[in-house]
Amino acid sequence: MGRSMKTTIGLILSLFLWTGTVTGAEEPQIIEHNQMMDHGDGHLMDMEGGMVMGQNKDKLPAGCDRVSEDVQITVHAGRKYSKQFPGTMFGFDKHEWRVKPCTRLTVNFINEDPIRHQWMMHGLPKFMYDKGMFHLEVTGPARVAGTLILPSEDKTYLVHCDIAQHMEKGMKGQLIVGQGSGTFPSIPGVTDPAIFDNYGPTQPSSTDLSGAATTTTASATPAVSPGDGVSPSGTVGFFSGSLILGFVAGIFGAPAAYGYYNRKLKGRPLDKVISELVGLLKGFLALVSTWLAWLYHRLKAGQRYLSKDRN
Length: 311
Description:
By secondary structure, the protein is α+β, with helices and mostly antiparallel strands. It has helices spanning 3-26, 209-212, 241-265, 270-310; strands at 31-32, 37-38, 44-45, 50-53, 70-78, 91-92, 96-99, 104-111, 116-122, 133-139, 142-149, 155-160, 172-177. It folds into two domains: 31-177, Cupredoxins -  blue copper proteins (Immunoglobulin-like, Sandwich), CATH 2.60.40; 206-310, no CATH class. The protein is built from four helices and 13 strands. It has an eight-stranded mixed beta sheet with strand order 2-3-4-10-9-12-13-7, with no helix packed on it. The protein has a five-stranded mixed beta sheet with strand order 1-11-8-5-6, with no helix packed on it. The longest helix is centred in the C-terminal third of the chain and has 41 residues, at 270-310. The chain is elongated.
């Protein structure tokens, strides 16, 4: 047999083996965990990674006269169910389930990953369910099933995988009993995230919007006239020209104003004097208010220039 023939046969065998490996990876063989030992209080487990906590097939919760209906759901878990949700790594094939109050629910949990996954519910009555939870766990690829009877009230229960970072990476859902009691945020494909991801450029704050039109680039230095009271470094100078002029006018104007009103009000009735003083006070307050508003806008403008200069 020639060397080229051997090479061709080797390539064909390699391709065949690779195809079988890929097919096996896509369709893992699911192990059935149906021979678990009962450890009491609804706790079942085996030595191969299968576990059920909170199994309850016959004890009715308070408010349930009978089982309203028997429902079975099948939940698939694995990495492939996260592909349609960017930013996630694990997922369930469904992330929301609805049943009636007092339903006897059997969950068939199928883990398609070669690691451990869980289907865990919280918020159940603790007098029936230890720690208030119903818990399915299996090291896969494998299948495990458990049954519980749901309480009579309308409520929404959080469902998730409690393995570290699995819930944060997408493995979470909600079970709605009756009308439910609201929804949980960040359930993939069901509810909006609690915190939206934003990978775009940083948006300017509302205080920067007014100054955005005055610059062509983020690094451009705004033009500041000498009379604006803004130092070359971009900060607002406290002893600006306008402030110094105000001090000078106050020092020389106060005695003149005092003499003017002393002559004007001398000998006039008290009610006229009070009325004049009230009008003067109103005018003064209006002037102070205007000055404070001007000072506020100047300081805010200076802070805006300073922040841009630092950037």
